[in-house]
Write a structure and sequence with these properties.
Blueprint: H1 17-29, H2 32-44, E1 51-55, H3 60-71, E2 75-79, H4 88-98, E3 102-103, H5 110-121, E4 127-130, H6 134-142, E5 152-155, H7 158-169, E6 177-179, H8 184-207, E7 215-219, H9 223-234, E8 238-242, H10 246-254, E9 258-259, H11 262-265, E10 271-274, H12 284-289, E11 294-298, H13 308-314, E12 315-322, E13 325-330, E14 335-339, H14 345-348, H15 355-375, E15 383-385, H16 388-401, H17 411-417
Parallel strand pairs: 1-2, 1-4, 2-3, 4-5, 5-6, 6-15, 7-8, 7-10, 8-9, 10-11, 11-14
Antiparallel strand pairs: 12-13, 13-14
Helix pairs in contact: 1-3, 1-4, 2-3, 2-15, 3-15, 8-9, 8-15, 15-16
C-alpha cells in the first residue's frame, strides 16, 4: 500500500514510483534466498527498533534488501554510494510504496552527494551499511558525536574493506565492521560473475561497440578483473591483463590471457577497463600511447583509477558524443573516449549486477546486520569476516533455490578427516 504520511527524502521525481515498484518486484523474483530471510524477519523481528543508515547503490536489488531490513523491524534510511549509480524510479518507489526515506539522485554533484550522506547520518544510526566506506569516513571526520550510539556496521566492497582495514591498522576505526565483501558467497560470485557480466553490459550500452575482434585491456586480476576478462573473451575479444601482483599475473597467463605492463598494453588496446581499487592506473603516459578511438572505462568503486585531470590537461577539446561517452581530442588529433565519467560503468551506464547474484551478497548483508544486533557487545573496533556458518547457510539456500542437491560426508569420512593415524 502507498505511504500516505510525509517522509523526509530527496529524490528526482516521485512520479517515477510506479515504474520503480514493478522493477523492484521483478528483481525480487530472482532473489529467493533474501526472500526466505525476509519471511523469517517478518516473524521474528530480530532488528526491532534498530536504526540503520545505509550508503549503497540505489538499485532494484538494494531496494529488496532495504525492505527486508525494514520487515525485520529496522528503521532504515538510504543514501547513494555513488553519484551515478542511483536508479531514480527505485528511489521514488522506496519512499512512496515502502515508507523508506531515500536521499539519492542519479547524476548528483559532489556537494549534493555528501549532503545526502549527512541526511542519512541525521538518522543517528546504530548500524551503518557501506559500499565504499564513505559513510564511515564521514562519521570519523565530521560525525564523531554519533559514534557512542553505533554498535557496528557492514561493508560491501573490496575498496571499502581496504579503507576500513587501513583505519583499523591506524587505530582510528571506532566500531566493529563486518567485511561482507570477503564472504565466499559474495566475492566469488558477485565480484566475478556479477561484475563480469554487468561491466560488459555497461560498456556495450554506452558505446554499442563490437567486442569480438577488439583488444580489451583489463587492469587488475582480482575477482572483478577475472570475471570481466572471462566474459570479454567469451564475446570474442583478445584480452590483455595488466597486474602488479606476480601471483595474479601468473594466474592470468595460465588462464590463457596475454600479460604485459600497461605501458605496452596502451599501444595496442582498443578498450581499457580498470578494476583495481587503486588510483591513477591509467595516466598521462598511457593516454599519450593510446591509439585513436581508444575507449577507457572503470569498474572499480571510485573514479580515481583513471587520472581524469591528466586526460583533460592533455586534450584540446571535449564533447559528449553519446550518453555516458565523452570524447577527448588530443593535440595530435587522436580521440580518446571516456565512459561514464570514469565512474562504475556497470552502474553508470547499465543496471549493475543481476539480481540472482546480488541475492547472495544481500543475504550476507541481512544476516550480518542480524549478527551485529545480537553480538556487537562481544566485538571490538575491528574488521571482521562474515561468520562461516552464515556464509555456508547462504550457499546452501542458494543451491536449494536452484534445485541442486549435494553429497554429505559419511560418519566414517568425518572421523577420517579429524584423525591423523590412518595412513598408507
Amino acid at each position: 500500500m502507498p505511504v500516505t504520511h510525509k517522509i523526509a527524502h530527496d529524490v528526482k521525481d516521485m512520479g517515477l514510483a510506479a515504474k520503480g515498484k514493478t522493477r523492484i518486484e521483478w528483481a525480487g523474483q530472482w532473489m529467493p534466498v533474501l526472500k526466505l530471510i525476509q519471511e523469517r524477519f517478518l516473524k521474528e523481528k530480530p532488528l526491532n527498533g534498530i536504526k540503520i543508515s545505509a550508503c549503497l547503490h540505489v538499485t532494484t536489488e538494494t531496494a529488496n534488501l532495504a525492505v527486508t531490513l525494514r520487515d525485520g523491524g529496522a528503521d532504515v534510511v538510504l543514501c547513494a554510494s555513488n553519484p551515478l549509480s542511483t536508479q531514480d524510479d527505485v528511489a521514488a518507489s522506496l519512499v512512496q510504496d515502502h515508507g523508506i526515506p531515500v536521499f539519492a539522485i542519479k547524476g548528483e554533484d559532489n556537494d549534493t552527494y555528501y549532503s545526502h550522506i549527512q541526511s542519512a547520518l541525521e538518522h543517528r544510526p546504530q548500524i551503518t551499511m557501506d559500499d565504499g566506506a564513505d559513510l564511515v569516513t564521514t562519521i570519523l571526520t565530521k560525525g564523531q558525536n554519533l559514534i557512542p550510539g553505533i554498535i557496528g556496521g557492514t561493508e560491501e566492497t573490496t575498496t571499502g574493506v581496504i579503507r576500513l582495514r587501513a583505519m583499523a591498522k591506524q587505530g582510528v576505526l571506532k566500531y566493529p565492521i563486518i567485511a561482507v565483501n570477503d564472504a565466499d558467497t559474495k566475492h566469488l560470485f558477485d565480484n566475478r560473475y556479477g561484475t563480469g557480466q554487468s561491466t560488459v553490459d555497461g560498456i556495450v550500452r554506452a558505446t554499442n561497440i563490437l567486442l569480438a575482434g577488439s583488444t580489451v585491456v583489463v587492469a587488475g586480476y582480482g575477482w572483478c578483473g577475472r570475471g570481466f576478462a572471462m566474459r570479454a573473451r567469451g564475446l570474442g575479444a583478445d584480452v590483455i591483463v595488466t597486474e602488479v601482483n606476480p601471483t595474479r599475473a601468473l594466474e592470468a597467463r595460465m588462464d590463457g590471457f596475454r600479460v604485459m605492463p600497461m605501458a605496452d598494453a596502451a599501444k595496442v588496446g582498443n578498450v581499457f577497463v580498470t578494476l583495481t581499487g587503486d588510483k591513477s592506473v591509467l595516466r598521462k603516459e598511457h593516454f599519450e600511447a593510446m591509439n585513436d578511438g581508444a575507449a577507457i572505462a572503470n569498474s572499480g568503486h571510485f573514479n580515481v583509477e583513471i587520472d581524469i585531470p591528466e586526460l583533460e590537461a592533455l586534450s584540446t577539446s571535449k564533447r559528449t558524443v553519446r550518453e555516458f561517452v565523452d570524447e577527448y581530442k588530443m593535440s595530435d588529433g587522436r580521440k580518446i573516449y571516456l565512459l561514464g565519467e570514469g565512474r562504475l560503468i556497470n552502474l553508470a551506464a547499465a543496471e549493475g549486477h543481476p539480481a540472482a547474484v546480488m541475492d547472495m551478497s544481500f543475504a550476507d548483508q541481512a544476516l550480518s546486520v542480524e549478527y551485529l544486533a545480537k553480538n556487537s557487545k562481544d566485538l571490538k573496533a575491528n574488521v571482521y569476516p562474515v561468520p562461516t556458518d552464515l556464509d555456508e547457510m547462504v550457499a546452501k539456500l542458494k543451491l536449494a533455490s536452484m534445485g541442486i542437491n549435494i553429497d554429505a560426508l559419511t560418519p566414517e569420512q568425518v572421523a577420517y578427516l579429524a584423525s591423523w593415524n590412518e595412513g598408507t
